[in-house]
Amino acid sequence: MIEIKNVKKSFGTKEVLKGVNAVFEKGKINIIIGASGSGKTVLQKCMVGLLKIDSGEILFDGRDFVTMSSEDKKLLRQQLGMLFQGAALFDSMTVEQNVMFPLDMFTDWERKEKLDRVNFVLERVDLKGSNSKRPDELSGGMKKRVGIARAIVLKPKYLFVDEPNSGLDPRTSRLIDTLIHDITKENNITTVVNSHDMNSVMEIGENILYLDQGRNGWSGTSKDVLFSKHENLNNFIFASEFFRDARDMRILEVKGLIEDERDMEKILREGLKSSGSDPSS
Ligand SMILES: Nc1ncnc2c1ncn2[C@@H]1O[C@H](COP(=O)(O)OP(=O)(O)O)[C@@H](O)[C@H]1O
Ligand SMILES: [Mg+2]
User: Fold this and answer.
1) Counting CB atoms within 10 angstroms of each CB, which of 136, 216, 218, 223 has the fewest?
2) 41 alpha carbon to ligand 1 midpoint, in Å?
3) What residue's CA is closest to ligand 1, atom 12?
4) How large is the average pLDDT for residues 196-220?
5) In whole angstroms, what is the distance from residue 1 CA to residue 59 CA?
6) Which is nearest to 32 in space by CA: 178, 133, 183, 164?
């Protein structure tokens, strides 16, 4: 579990995080959503120690990252897996070298041991035998999977993923989402995903934090997110007509207007009658 308490971060006079509070649960997909520029990436960078917060606390299973000794920080860093936007692979290195990199950095294992682990995680992300390929030979989805393999090679307790679906087609996006979900469950990882993709939120999101211009806008489960009364959150979600429709269907279902044998005409007629212009009223 990771707890964020009143975290603030400015760049010069620009306040980006204005006192964020959050709890990210173990073994779950915790998703941070919010408009572009709302502070998602900055918050993740603060959590992994790439940026220094101005004030507040970041607790990893009760351990305060900010105040711990540099020795403890080094140990904690090894428990953090990160998948950056764009996968951020080293172009001059092979897939195998990219995935082995954290093992080279943080372990004194024998080469054979490292290679076994690399092959294990490559197989897990369905890239068995791609060891000698270079990043520019890989598709966007494959690059992400190499990035995931590298992020989990040290068996992290905490996994941070920034915009896993950026630049991917919808089908590949769902495959990556499913992979992140399954790895989280298999290893009981505390996973924090930044996303502006509502499909991911509904597909794999368990705990949702909506960042509203550097503040907590709303938090809850993916079951509740479609029904929130938070205006900015609604504007964010229902920018997509599909999600408006999904919500309306769900409301009709809750009201008992949709039965197993669905009569679409009746549903639409009664739905419109009972809900007026605001279906949530
Ligand atoms: N290193 C930096 N220096 C100055 N401003 C920054 C820096 N990093 C991010 N910002 C600003 O912080 C705000 C939040 O950015 P970011 O966390 O990347 O948003 P998001 O990931 O939600 O799209 C933006 O206005 C961005 O310009
Ligand atoms: Mg971002």
Assistant:
1) 136
2) 7
3) 16
4) 91
5) 8
6) 164
Answer yes or no: is the C-beta of 40 below 6 A from any ligand 1 atom: yes
Reported pTM:
0.85
Residues 231, 196: Cα–Cα separation, whole Å? 17
Query: Confidence class of residue 276 from pLDDT cuts 50, 70 and 90?
Result: low
| Ligand number with the minimum distance to the CA of 40 | 1
Q: Which residues pair with 7 in a beta bridge?
A: 20
| Six-digit token string for 103 | 């093992």
**CA distance linking residue 209 with residue 30, whole number of Å:** 8
Amino acid at 218: W
CB 41 within 8 A of CB 82: no
Domains assigned to the chain: 2-222 (3.40.50.300), 240-281 (no CATH)
Residue type, 186: E
Q: What is the mean pLDDT of the chain?
A: 89
